Amino acid sequence: MKTDAIKHAMYFGLLLGLLFSVNFWTQASANAMVNSLQLVFVFLIPYVVFVVMKHCRDNVFDGRISYGKAFFYGIQLFFYASVVSAAFKYVYFKFIDPTYLKNLKNASMKVLESLNYSTSEELLLASEEVFTPINMSLQFIWMNMFLGVFLLIVLSAIVKKEQKEIGE
Q1: pTM flag (> 0.85)
Q2: What one-character DSSP code corresponds to residue 93?
Q3: DSSP state of 96
């Protein structure tokens, strides 16, 4: 892959990461008006990814990109965006709202109890290790990448524009 494409993915990954962070903030907000904005991000993020991939195709790859290159570029884009977003989430969990993870853990335990699942001492100890700012931030990287792959399967097919064969 061209170095220009990597720089492009880093730059736009930073911007997409900021968008992921704002999306998380709207989700984590206790304000119902702010929380309702999350629906906007459900449609905005795929659209922004499409526009960025198209911009890369037209400006870095001279208007031609294969499905594989588009997919790989998208993976890089989501990786950089996920790292930026994870850094924001770490700061959020650690400094902005330190009770967020504790509340999330308590809500998870209540769901398990409502399903008549016995919460043993080992489960409680394991949840203490899982619901830490660093662990949760790193888990969000994998979650964003996983969801990004599904989105990229479709968007790469839409963005691809391969060179036509001679005689076509």
Answers
A1: yes
A2: I
A3: I
The rounded distance, in Å, linking the Cα atoms of 96 and 18 is: 16
Identify the residue with better confidence: 165 or 123: 123
In a domain, 22, yes or no: yes
Phi, psi dihedrals of residue 99, rounded to the nearest 5°: -85, -10
Contact 46, 152 (CB under 8 A): no
**pLDDT higher for 22 or 124?**
22
Number of domains in the chain: 1
21 falls within a domain: yes
Cβ pair 162, 64 in contact under 8 A? yes
Note whether residue 165 is domain-resident: no
Domain span at residue 20?
A: 3-159
Query: Does residue 123 lie in a domain region?
Result: yes
